[in-house]
Design a protein that fits this description.
Layout: E1 9-12, E2 17-18, E3 25-26, E4 31-35, E5 40-42, H1 60-81, H2 83-99, H3 101-118, E6 124-130, E7 137-144, E8 147-154, E9 160-165, E10 172-177, E11 180-181, H4 185-200, E12 211-217, E13 229-231, E14 234-237, H5 239-247, H6 254-267
Parallel strand pairs: 8-12, 12-14
Antiparallel strand pairs: 1-4, 2-3, 4-5, 6-7, 7-8, 9-10, 10-11, 13-14
Helix pairs in contact: 1-2, 1-3
The structure holds zinc ion.
The site of zinc ion has 8 residues, from loops.
Length: about 280
């Protein structure tokens, strides 16, 4: 055997295999690492890898979706009524995009910029990732020393109010923003947290990493005495409160954080741009 044969080599698998470390089933043709000596295969998240992380463009898929919808409406107007009507539809569509989708995506972009500026390299950020097998997205994932934060950014205006509910033995909260009950948004974040848990649970090295979910109101008002609160397990917070949690010291080493990030990058692909491989 040649020297260095104990170093796994990157290749395309000719047969299905299973990652010797995390147990992920690997299909024939998949990129993986193969150790000739031990005859073991490793997935690309478990072996050293030169693939660069693609962290996504914040809000890109929301903006893209907005543009796609607008195009569809314009083309429909053209087909049914002609070019003159299409020109009006186009003007109206760009107005709508700016008002709704554009706003949502700019909230995400602003939160991403805020965290980038305030926290910098202390966390590894992912923006706008897909939840495979669903139509859902994740706005932001931050790998921090305390664990993984999954954040849904919302740009509602108005005051954020915590309304206690539930019996005294099982207290919970509802969240109102600008006088409207927004508690349902929590379900969306719970699903995102589940997706992240599914991404890390097979890997013995990072199993048990804490995953926090948060609903971050980027444009809402909070009183000076208001604190972040929980609805079920999900935190309701504002950008400054998130910053504090991301900056907090924790038990994850940088190596461990990189490893988590690499696995998340593979498990939850960027939503806007297709993965280039
Ligand atoms: Zn693996």
């Amino acid at each position: 055997m040649s020297e260095g044969s104990s170093n796994p080599r990157r290749l395309k698998l000719r047969y299905p295999a299973q990652c010797a470390k995390c147990g992920l089933p690997l299909s024939a043709g998949a990129e993986a690492f193969w150790n000739r000596t031990t005859k073991e295969a490793y997935c690309v998240a478990c072996a050293p890898d030169e693939t660069q992380l693609i962290t996504g463009v914040p809000g890109a898929s929301a903006a893209l979706e907005g543009a796609r919808r607008a195009d569809k409406r314009v083309e429909e107007a053209r087909r049914r009524y002609g070019d003159h009507a299409a020109a009006v539809a186009e003007a109206m569509a760009s107005r709508d995009t700016a008002a709704s989708w554009g706003k949502g995506s700019s909230g995400e972009a602003r939160l991403a910029a805020f965290v980038g500026k305030e926290v910098g390299d202390a966390v590894i950020s992912f923006h706008d990732r897909l939840i495979p097998g669903t139509r859902g997205n994740i706005d932001h994932i931050f790998v921090a020393p305390v664990g993984i934060w999954v954040i849904d950014a919302k740009s509602y205006t108005g005051k954020v109010v915590q309304r206690p509910t539930g019996p005294f033995w099982r207290p919970d909260n509802k969240v109102f923003v600008g006088g409207r009950d927004r508690t349902k948004l929590v379900k969306g974040v719970e699903k995102q947290v589940e997706a992240v848990l599914a991404a890390v649970k097979g890997d013995p090295e990072i199993k048990g990493t804490l995953v926090y979910g948060g609903l971050c109101f980027v444009d809402s008002e909070w009183g000076l005495t208001d604190f972040p609160f929980q609805v079920g397990n999900i935190w309701v917070l504002y950008p400054g409160a998130l910053r504090k949690r991301l900056n907090k010291g924790g038990s994850l080493s940088r190596d461990r954080m990189d490893h988590i990030a690499h696995r998340l990058d593979l498990s939850l692909p960027p939503a806007a741009a297709p993965r280039l491989r």
